[in-house]
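Hello,

I think I submitted the calcium ion job twice by accident. Can you confirm which output corresponds to this input? Input:
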Amino acid sequence: MKIKKIITLLTLSLAGFTTTHTSAKTPPKPNIVVIYLDDLGYGDLSSYGATELSTPNIDVLANEGVKFTNGYATSATCTPSRFGLLTGVYPWRNKKARILPGSAPLIIDTKQETLPKMLKRAGYQTAIVGKWHLGLGAGNVNWNAHISPGPNEVGFEESYILAATQDRTPTVYIKNGNVDGLDPNDPISVSYKKNFEGEPTGKDNPELTTMKWHHGHNNSIVNGIPRIGYMKGGEAAKWSDVDMADHFLKKAQTYVKNHKEKPFFLYYALQQPHVPRTPHPRFVGKSGMGPRGDVILEADYMIGEFIKTLKEEGILENTLIVFSSDNGPVLQDGYYDDAMEKIGKHTPGGVLRGGKYSLFDAGTRVPFMVYWKGTIKPKVSDALVCQIDLLASFANLVGVDAEPTDSQNILPALLGKKKKGRKDIVLEAGSKTSYRTGDWVMIPPYKGAKMSWHSFVESGIDMEFQLYNLKEDPSQLNNLAKSNPKQLNKLLAKFESIRGKDYSNIKKK
Ligand code: NG6
Ligand code: CA
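Support: Only one job matched these inputs. Its output is below.
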């Protein structure tokens, strides 16, 4: 009797075990690739309405995936947006999350939660190829020794990066913390304070430059291009600007080929169309729009080649791709390169007002799509989605917990299964913030120039409150703050409940 009971119990529990085992859903572990462009605007792709430029390869991601019409970077500049993307934390919470010089220390705390760390916990292999711009080291970097902490200390098992921007020194690639191709007999020195004796600069030696600087970009000259920041030595390690896109593509392709047996996360951060715009000769003149158009076509080509590799390796259908940009578009950003002169009918921000650096929508609203061949059905979504949400959403996808941040799990929206994304979002340009909820956006009063002195982009700054309905007025031409004080106050209260009251740069009397 007793034995029989035990056997029954055992059978039952075994059956129970089997049932729970088979019914518990094993989360999918697709490869995850984030393709991130630098300064690409909402209107810069043919899939987002551009008529003067054709971007067929990126368009595949938009037209055969979920194309978001309300997709946002957290900020209108690079460093803060990249900080938000990787940490899930609003960049205005970190005072150091501002455009960084090439010599700046790492601004992500090595103990902090990050997208690659979370995916590593889920068993992913992780890597970054491309632009970093989140600082390196802990101050006073010795570029001739191992540089740490950096991407490898915040979750990336492998990294192949350019430290800051293409227009900033040091103009070398860094592979897992070491300058790639450095000759120890020709050490590198970098300074953002003063020039190294005897070294030519854009300011004093214009005869040595092939690109004319517009503002500030007149320090060390590398490959004929005057940069921001000074640098000496490291001749053999210096990158070739015209080959940069091909170079990063190769690294991304090699990574995929060598890591396809297990799930991987690849952050592929292209440098285009940030300045200096240096298309490879085979793309020069292709757009008829000067170098800015040419490098957008170049980036499109690279992305096409990258997707081809995924296909050839037989992993395209097992790879989820997110495509976006770190901030809105800018034409004049440091060099005379015909971007303004040859723009013609092209509108880099589409119907949106402003651009890079701007509190107006073109500053932060960017192309944003999620593509997963065979799993995601093509769709245009107007859900409000933001790059900070990748952390919580992908944690949900792969079945691990992410530490709490500002990131929200909006996976159903990202996969095109639900119309609703986040309810609201605090957006940022420089040190100033605005608030969007539903179709409404509110920009509080700030003191400052209405136009960027260097880039001729409207800043969105005003001493008066601004309130716009983006659905009816996507170009932000009708300020409804005065005519709709009720709505204004509603948004202001919600904004302050997240942002706090200490956001204004206007001194209280
Ligand atoms: C700005 C530079 C601009 C660009 C930008 C970084 C000046 C006046 N302007 O400070 O040329 O390099 O930094 O762009 O120096 S970002 O996309 O990386 O944020
Ligand atoms: Ca940028």
